[in-house]
Amino acid sequence: MLTISGSATRERPTGNTPDKYHAPQDGENPESGLMNPLVSGPPAFMSPGNGRTYYLGTSSNWSFARRVLSMVHEHVHKATLPTEALVFEGTAYDLGWDGSRIDPSPESPVIPTLDHAIFLINAVRFRCGHLYHLFDDSDFMVSLYTFYSEGQRARPRGLWYIHFLIILAFGKMFTQVKYLKGKPAGISLFVKALQILPDHTLLYSSPMVSTEILCCIAIFYQSLDCRTASHNYVGQAMRMAMAHGMHTFMSVTDLGRDNVERCRKIWWTVYILDRHMTSIQGLPQSVDDRFIQAKLPSPEGSENIKSLDMHIKLCRSIADINATVYATDGRLNRTFLLNIKGALSNLAGLADELNKSFPLQLEATDSGLSRVSAYLHLFYQQCVIVATRPLLFCFLKIRLESAETCVQSLQKSPNVRNLIKICLDSAQHSIRILHDLASQGLLETFLTFDLESLFISTVVLLMAPTIDRQLIANDTWWHATADLIFNDMVEAGNQIARFRHSEIQQLDERLNLLMPRQDQNGQSNSEVPLHFNTKLPFPSHEAHTATPIDGNSCSDPFLGGDTTPAAGCAFEPSLTSSEMMTMANSIELFDAEWVSTMMDNHAIW
């Protein structure tokens, strides 16, 4: 049996942290008798048949989709899901290197001219600079000009050169969309940097630049769908930063302002990557926030620092969701509904600040979207989805046992139904943001955060009509829009999007078999596909060209006429802080007891 897990609320640190943090409510009643795990059992694993086994992490988006697909497939076909039709991490791209360093290193990659290198570096600044600190601008550029002023043979080959190769690799990935034989642009630069990366004994001699390099490698690997390698490099960066004391209150007087400011930027980048990637892996957090005393970089109040502060708060929210709604032992316990209440209360404290400081003008026709604002809003909606989607899994399992029981159960608890609606509303909000980004040519097709949002949103939106047709209106519009965004990413050369889209189509096909068709008298007479499920051919690797989705292109053949976002989906803004808090406070002990009984009756998890 595939499993999700839960645990008690973790203590929230106090003291010197960026801005104040909204601690989740305890949500525990010691007299409720809800503390024991619902069911015991081993954690879940899946093997592609090549001898390697993959752990399905508790809060992992990839694992959640696999669990849903496996459960539905087993119900429909009365057989275990074959892994031959699935794609596992590390297979999306051909790196042209097996990771071994015993063979002689290949020839040095082609180094671009100075003006081309500056162009690539500027692309990295634009695409990553507002979210992560990847290099110190002044030191890096001084070394750049020194590098190009030297003769070919006299050029340095130290840590800066490794850093330089990785930044160039990022730049090529951001600016070139042509793929050759399955290899992304810039991959030779990245592989060369990995091959000449020295041992940690040398890296520790230059902790600042080494930590920056490790962060770059982690992000690049994540973008290649090498999640385990990425998580490992983030862990190395975290330990190197902590060994250098970057997590502490570093004294400007003793260490110098420039060094302290750089260390603060490095630390919070490491922290963000660690929290985010650990959640994506569905693993427990490795560092307790109580031991973190680092301040935010200066100047406080600037736009970059405001976005960094919000980014940190969202990372803490996703970490708390991972530690409360999900547990570390592969099981979901009876307190998870109250933990969802605590998670939503925490997120409610961020909603108004997010909307005020980083507004999204989705309805505006004369102003463009802020890429940073869009990212933060997508991250916020992802937190909501991850916190609430276990309920969809529970009711999907009930639906597979009995459609009538599922509908009746939802009608008995309006509060639980509203929680499911919150999950679906966040998914719709995410799809709408991604649609508008695509229409303005701002869709991120290399870094993974847009794809993650699209993937997790589409999965829950596919599940909803199977549970209850009344949960979501115009579901065909959302499915068609998601299909177009997936194809926009695939056409840009994103092989991971290609594979995720394939899994979405497999899930859609199986869920469609559960949907009854209505005859002319309104009676259900057979089980046939319902959703928009046209399989679009995947382009080849060669000569991909990203084409932004036109603002009016998301027309749904099932709806006809004007099916733009305003007409086709009746889109509404995200919930305010007060609305989210009201929703969280509506969850009572009765609801938790009721859900626990339902889960017991249906042997869920």
UniProtKB/TrEMBL annotation:
Tell me which CDD domains the record gives.
fungal_TF_MHR (cd12148)
Q: Which GO terms describe its molecular function?
A: sequence-specific DNA binding; zinc ion binding
Q: Which InterPro entries match?
A: Stress_Response_Reg (IPR051711), XnlR_reg_dom (IPR007219)
| Entry annotated with the keyword Nucleus | yes
Family matches, as Pfam families: Fungal_trans (PF04082)
Which stretches are tagged as biased composition: Basic and acidic residues?
Answer: 9-25
Protein's recorded name: Xylanolytic transcriptional activator regulatory domain-containing protein
Give the source species: Aspergillus vadensis (strain CBS 113365 / IMI 142717 / IBT 24658)
